[in-house]
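Figure 6 in text form: structure in, sequence out.
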């Protein structure tokens, strides 16, 4: 919220307003099978709440060169803008962290460790197999099983363009 010249106390209020709007209108949300639909819907709610925040207070942030709030909100709304791409990336990273936390308890620790070393740390499967004292096949199966579960759980939440769930 600092990007929008919102103080911490006001940011807490805005977060509550966004959450209230989401809980109130969630039943009306239509995913329509489009990747990133929820993320875009959530972003639109945030932009609207920020505009409402500034109108209600009938004030603007102090001029600081390029700090014009309307221009920044317009960039956030523009799906091809750098600010919008940052929003998308941060959203997907947050969702991925939550999915990983939910998935972990469903796997044996050796399966999870092999998956993390290969998929998250970028280690080569043969190196992980040697480190863990398991077969190369076991490492590849661990990665495959965890990714399959994560793909199922994340369908529609994370765009395939994020690259994490690409079949490798």
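Output sequence:
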């Amino acid at each position: 919220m600092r990007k929008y010249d919102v103080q911490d106390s006001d940011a807490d209020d805005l977060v509550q307003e966004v959450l209230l709007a989401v809980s109130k209108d969630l039943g009306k949300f239509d995913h329509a099978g489009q990747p990133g639909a929820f993320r875009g819907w959530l972003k639109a709610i945030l932009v609207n709440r920020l505009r409402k925040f500034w109108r209600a207070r009938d004030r603007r942030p102090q001029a600081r060169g390029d700090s014009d709030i309307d221009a920044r909100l317009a960039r956030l709304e523009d799906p091809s803008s750098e600010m919008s791409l940052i929003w998308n990336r941060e959203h997907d990273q947050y969702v991925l962290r939550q999915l990983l936390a939910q998935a972990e308890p469903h796997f044996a620790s050796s399966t999870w460790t092999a998956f993390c070393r290969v998929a998250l740390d970028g280690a080569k499967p043969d190196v992980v197999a040697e480190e863990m004292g398991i077969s190369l096949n076991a490492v590849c199966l661990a990665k495959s099983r965890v990714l399959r579960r994560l793909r199922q759980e994340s369908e529609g939440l994370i765009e395939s363009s994020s690259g994490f769930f690409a079949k490798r």
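Caption detail: Residues 62-66 have pLDDT under 50 and may be disordered.
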